[in-house]
Design a protein that fits this description.
about 500 residues; alpha+beta; about 60% helix; two-stranded antiparallel ribbon
């Protein structure tokens, strides 16, 4: 038999449970619905690198265990949680988002790897744009599709039509199919993988120059239309596009543009020097319909020189003691063309062909050297700046030609006015655009690849630092305790202040 007190106690317990359970349920529900706050953090200790792309990750040679990603992604960002851990948020090619948890120690190790990569190549500015030495290439987007469509219209399509020229309907249909399919193939490539601006630059350059090289091969072989003419052009355009696309992987925009420019300069110089040596002189004893042996040799030499230029070209951007961007290369290219044109104003009408080739070569090289010394060293131009400056040069040439027509000038004064107008238009357009000052390379730091650096750069640097800093460097990682050197438990961070730096 239960006492009244026991009955009252049980009733109170039951009532308390009924009252507390809803409160506990609401509290648990509120706790479960509280959002997990994540704030964006940088990948490096200095807080400058906030976004990574596949090109940057490839350039910095990020790999497991610190870096879990392959190549099927577009961009990656890091977020820190309130607990001190971090989450790597990755946008994949197919649009999905993947999240990789990072413990505090794992994030610290990743930052050490990225800091070493940043230190090896120079300071990194906003996004993926390098302010010193290298400009890491960002995704190009639809520009790659546009360029490949242009190649389809003017290279792939005409070459296919030439191959099928025996049948008029087949030739027309082949042109339309090749030109149209280039758009869809490029669009699918952009959708399935990240294509950088450097790859876009060098793929388009390789496609156009590959087509020209194919035409030169057809001329060397004595082809006169048909398969013998169209097949080399199609193979050259496709091969150049593919080689440029894969060769520019990991390059900066400036390196890719420099590769194409040096290839053009090497091929043009070889071709012009061959002309100066008489490769294209008229030979009345030769009555063949195809090119003469000396001309064939000149064309072959130009192709070989262009291929070598693609390999040598990136070193201009890598080894220069100043920053070389894609826009800077546009300035050098335009100046070289204007130099070749300007020197022809000094050539009379009776001048021989050999002299014309020699003078044009000298003017071209002089124009490139002047632009490098006076323009490239002083500022960093974007691709858009370079394109607008080239348009300014064209506008100046048109104005110079207009003055020549109004004045009814002869050939030499007309050429001088056109060249002077182009040079003036180039400089004025550059001044109006007001490009950023040249950032210069990061000196006093041994670049990657030199003396065992990780990334294969070949620039060497020498830094002479103050005596106190040199002593600190010698004691780095240790301290003196009772006359003996004892290792630090944590690595010391010492900033050097160089007073003299030499880079070559």
């Amino acid at each position: 038999m239960q006492t009244p007190f026991r009955l009252i106690a049980r009733a109170l317990m039951l009532a308390g449970a009924l009252l507390l359970n809803p409160c506990m349920f609401r509290a648990a529900r509120a706790q479960g619905s509280a959002p997990q706050v994540e704030r964006p953090v940088a990948f490096d200790a200095a807080g400058r690198v906030t976004v990574l792309s596949p090109t940057v990750a490839s350039r910095w040679k990020l790999m497991p265990p610190e870096w879990p990603l392959g190549s099927d992604w577009r961009e990656a960002r890091m977020y820190a949680t309130e607990s001190g851990a971090a989450v790597l948020v990755v946008q994949r090619i197919d649009g999905a988002v993947a999240r990789y948890p990072y413990a505090a120690d794992d994030l610290l190790q990743l930052r050490r790897v990225i800091d070493a990569a940043v230190l090896a190549q120079g300071t990194v500015g906003d996004g993926a744009r390098g302010t010193t030495g290298l400009e890491l290439s960002e995704p190009a987007g639809n520009v790659f599709v546009r360029n490949q469509t242009v190649l389809g219209l003017f290279a792939y399509g005409p070459a296919t039509a030439a191959i099928l020229s025996d049948n008029g309907a087949a030739a027309g249909g082949g042109y339309l199919l090749a030109a149209g399919s280039s758009f869809f193939v490029a669009a699918r490539m952009v959708r399935n993988k990240s294509v950088s601006r450097a790859q876009t630059i060098l793929a388009f350059h390789g496609g156009t120059r590959g087509g020209l090289a194919g035409a030169a091969v057809a001329a060397i072989a004595g082809a006169n239309g048909g398969v013998g003419y169209g097949a080399p052009i199609l193979a050259g355009a496709l091969g150049g596009t593919i080689a440029g696309f894969h060769g520019a992987k990991g390059m900066s925009d400036g390196e890719a543009a420099s590769s194409g420019f040096v290839a053009d300069l090497s091929a043009a110089t070889t071709f012009s020097l061959a002309g100066a040596l008489g490769a294209f002189d008229d030979d009345t004893a030769y009555h063949g319909d195809d090119a003469r042996p000396r001309a064939k040799l000149a064309l072959g030499g130009a192709i070989v020189a262009g291929l070598a230029g693609y390999w040598v070209g990136p070193r201009y951007a890598r080894r220069s003691a100043y920053n070389v961007t894609a826009g800077d290369i546009d300035m050098v290219f335009t100046s070289a063309a204007l130099g070749a044109l300007a020197v022809n104003a000094a050539i009379g009408d009776g001048t021989g062909r050999r002299t014309g080739f020699a003078v044009s070569t000298a003017g071209m090289l002089a124009g490139a050297a002047i632009a490098d010394r006076m323009l490239v060293r002083s500022a960093d131009r974007t691709s858009a700046d370079g394109t607008l400056a080239q348009l300014g040069a064209v506008a100046g040439m048109l104005m110079g030609g207009g003055i020549a027509l109004i004045a009814e000038s002869h050939r030499q004064p007309s050429v001088a006015l056109v060249a002077a107008g182009g040079a003036l238009g180039l400089v004025l357009a550059d001044r109006l655009l007001g490009p950023a000052p040249d950032a210069g390379p990061k000196r006093g730091v041994l670049p990657s690849g030199a003396a065992g650096g990780p990334n294969g750069s070949s620039r060497w640097s020498l830094s002479i630092v103050p005596a106190a800093t040199a002593i600190a460097l010698g004691m780095r990682g240790s301290r003196i305790s009772h006359g003996a050197r004892v290792p630090f438990t944590k690595p010391a961070s010492i900033t050097t202040v160089p007073v003299l730096r030499i880079a070559f």
